[in-house]
Amino acid sequence: MTFSLAGRCARTGMFGAVVSSSSPAVAARCIFARAGVGAACSQNVTDPRLGPRLLDLLAGGVDARSALNEVVPEAPYIEYRQLCLVDSSGRGAAYSGAKALGRHSTLVGTDCVSAGNLLASDDVPGAMVAAFEARPGDHLGDRLIAALQAAVAAGGENGPVHSAGLVLVDRVPWNVADLRVDWAEDDPVSELAALWEIYRPQVDDYVQRALDPSKAPSYPAR
After folding, report:
1. Is the overall model pTM greater than 0.85, yes or no?
2. Which of 51, 57, 132, 205 is most buried by a 10 A CB count?
3. In terms of DSSP H, where are the helices of the chain?
4. Is there a contact between 59 and 85 (Cβ–Cβ < 8 Å)?
5. pLDDT tens digits, 165-176
6. CB 130 within 8 A of CB 148
7. DSSP character for 218?
8. What is the CA 172 to chain-centroid distance, rounded?
9. Is pLDDT of 219 > 90?
């Protein structure tokens, strides 16, 4: 019911993830990122505890594959889960349990990893990775949105999707972007892309307002 990608920008050190699904509010349960550490996706009969657990292991100094190798044997009902993550060096790892839904697939790329289940085509993760890799000089948010759009163009889920989301982290201990379309009757990916276009020019300003408002651009009170 879901396709996602976790990615790292080698140029800036940012991490982020995107996801879309037929289920409502998918981003609230499935995508996780931590500044300086990595990004992870936990999906397919989702256990939201697994994303933070993977990031905790990365923060402890292990790589993506080692983190996954530790989580898979210890997690309950792991045969229902699908996981992917990217670490601080851009190494990716992915897992699909034996009871993952429908056509499911994962792919590790350069500084990214994609996963999907109940897919319309096995080409979806590859399309996401290719779109992400094609734009290494662009803002990480742009690359993540491009990956979601490529997934839709490649067939996406085997049925309509209704929610989508994006999360980004940078050099501060909070999400510098956390954008969600929790329900849309049609094309949540395009709605998310439009939200990102509005938010993108303000990402750095919101960080500066938190760190030192006296040096931030003028802004209305809110």
Report:
1. yes
2. 132
3. 27-30, 50-59, 64-74, 124-133, 140-153, 188-199, 203-211
4. no
5. 999 999 999 999
6. no
7. P
8. 18
9. no
